[in-house]
Write a structure and sequence with these properties.
The protein folds into two domains: about 10-85, CRISPR-associated endonuclease Cas1, N-terminal domain (Ribosomal Protein L15, Chain: K, domain 2); about 95-270, Four Helix Bundle (Hemerythrin (Met), subunit A) (Up-down Bundle), CATH 1.20.120.920. Helix content is about 45%, strand content about 15%. It contains nine helices and eight strands. β7 and β8 form a beta hairpin. The mean pLDDT is about 90.
Length: about 300
């Protein structure tokens, strides 16, 4: 009998791997990618935060189960990673973290404090006083559009706007295609970290009403320091496979900037600015009859 699997902390993992035209399965106890010729490639699934599955990939039940046990997020994306269709839960969540996050989001004063903390982190300056969440969102949007324009000029890219038809992707211009490929990488690793820490991707503070609202909130803290410059640099000198080039550069940038080491501590920092204490365990809660052994993984992962 093999010992029980224990998740590796997010900060010690490779950020993201992309797969296309293969089958993911568990053969002889190993997580493998099998190509059309039957050649196996071993994938160290427990050491990766997020697996991005492009068209042509089939995943077995055993592969999904193993990915969940080791806390690796599976994300189904379009060709080149330019669209995100669906994602799988990478292991579990902490009820206390979910309640804490929801309590902050439902308290107007606490939510505003969290939004102001995110603004300060992102732009390295205090946000304007006496502004609502909606007003700060508008100010942030204006600054983001200005940053896009500034980076486009810096890299010599013909930039119109962050706008394209999702139903006609081939008609999108090169800068938008590069940005979509880059942000999908960032959203994947951010969602993996959020889920690993036990929070809910849908409960956002700046963004709301979307399945990945909190993912967008947290990813925006790093977007212009990591993936946006990469997207514009590739768009300035486009190659034959621009999406692949963007993905490779993003992967290297995540590793060099140690992004996965920063996400979970940064989440805790900005949420703590809300001024609310996490809820205490209920008096009616009953400890497990057979408690889980200690795990080296992040707090939201199942042991």
């Amino acid at each position: 009998m093999l010992p029980p699997l224990k998740p590796i902390p997010i900060k010690e993992r490779l950020s993201v791997l992309f797969f296309e035209k293969c089958q993911l399965d568990v053969l002889d106890g190993a997580f493998v990618a099998v190509d059309v010729h039957g050649v196996r490639m071993h994938i160290p699934v427990g050491g990766v935060a997020c697996l991005m599955l492009e068209p042509g990939v089939r995943v077995s039940h055993a592969a999904c189960a193993l990915a969940a046990r080791v806390g690796t997020l599976l994300v189904w994306v379009g060709e080149g990673g330019v669209r995100v269709y669906s994602s799988g839960q990478p292991g579990g969540a902490r009820a206390d973290r979910l309640l804490y996050q929801a309590k902050l989001a439902l308290d107007d004063d606490a939510r505003l404090k969290v939004v102001r903390a995110m603004y300060k982190y992102r732009f390295a300056e205090e946000p304007p006083q006496r502004r609502s969440v909606e007003q700060l969102r508008g100010i942030e949007g204006a600054r983001v559009r200005a940053l896009y324009q500034m980076l486009a000029q810096q890299y010599g890219v013909d930039w119109k706007a962050r706008n394209y038809d999702r139903q006609d992707w081939d008609a999108a211009d090169i800068p938008n295609r590069c940005l979509s490929a880059a942000t999908s990488c960032l959203y994947g690793v951010t969602e993996a970290a959020i889920l690993a820490a036990g929070y809910a991707p849908a409960i956002g503070f700046i963004h709301s009403g979307k399945p990945l609202s909190f993912v967008y909130d947290i990813a925006d803290l790093y977007k212009f320091d990591t993936v946006v410059p990469i997207a514009f640099s590739v768009a300035a000198k486009p190659c034959q496979h621009i999406e692949r080039e963007v993905r490779i550069r993003c992967r290297d940038a995540f590793r060099q900037s140690k992004l996965l080491e920063r996400i979970i501590p940064d989440i805790e920092t900005v949420l703590s600015e809300g001024g609310l204490t996490p809820p205490e365990p209920s008096e009616e809660s009953i400890p497990p009859a057979i408690p889980n052994s200690e795990s080296i993984g992040d707090v939201g992962h199942r042991s």
